[in-house]
Amino acid sequence: MHPIAFYLGSLPIRWYGLMMATAFLAGLWTATRRARLVNVSGDVIGDVTLWLMLGGIVGARFVYVTTYWKQEFADQPFSEVFMVQHGGLVFYGGLIGASLAVCAYLAWKKLPVWKIADIMSPSIALGSVFGRVGCLLNGCCYGRPCDLPWAIQFPNGSDAWDQQFHAGLVSATGPSLPIHPTEIYDGLLNLILYLGLAWLFRRRKFDGQIFALYLMGYAIFRSIVEYFRGDYPPDHIHDGLTSAQLLSIPMFIVGLGLLWFFRQRAQTKRSQPVGG
Prior knowledge:
There is one protein chain. By secondary structure, the chain is mainly α. The protein has one domain. It is built from nine helices and four strands. The radius of gyration is 20 Å and the shape is globular.
């Protein structure tokens, strides 16, 4: 855990913020290269990425702040709400915010929504890889205790240590208990998702296919990682499922529904006679 990358004078530059910036740059670069395969301008992808970034950060931060208001923000200066570089983003909030912002922009510019969604989807998965590296360095989104050979420990004063200390599980001077490296789990699964979607993009049969598969794949992978998370307060567990797992269910259903809809639409277009 190394939250501070370096200092610019007295200003701390955090790894979390640097990793988020890297995520957007990697996403922009890979999406621009992918766009050339389907004759979409790189300028369009640059504009879409800007709207995706703004909508994603606002949505992700809004959901995090409203969810953890009592635990983290009620007794803090209001300016802390805007300190994104300290960590605290909810992916599903970011996905909703980014989707709304991008759809509004594409509708305004009258651009092909689902073709561009296919271009962006693998890059969103790649961005999540860098995002989870930021989580690891920041000490958030940590796992529950385990005795596996690859378990990791966070230092005294970290969020994981603080939770375990108040539960009487660790001493006031030692590190946290060994825990699942859920940030690494999530990052590796998102890397697999990125590679799979990037490979499928060149073989897609219809617009919207890659976006629908992204929704389904992310919902499955996120639900798996959630079983190893240890950072949720008790009121965020519902019948043994975390909030993210509950949200993954409708996300998977929406992805499956879109996949069926886009496939049916493509088959209908192919079956229509040409000419009069």
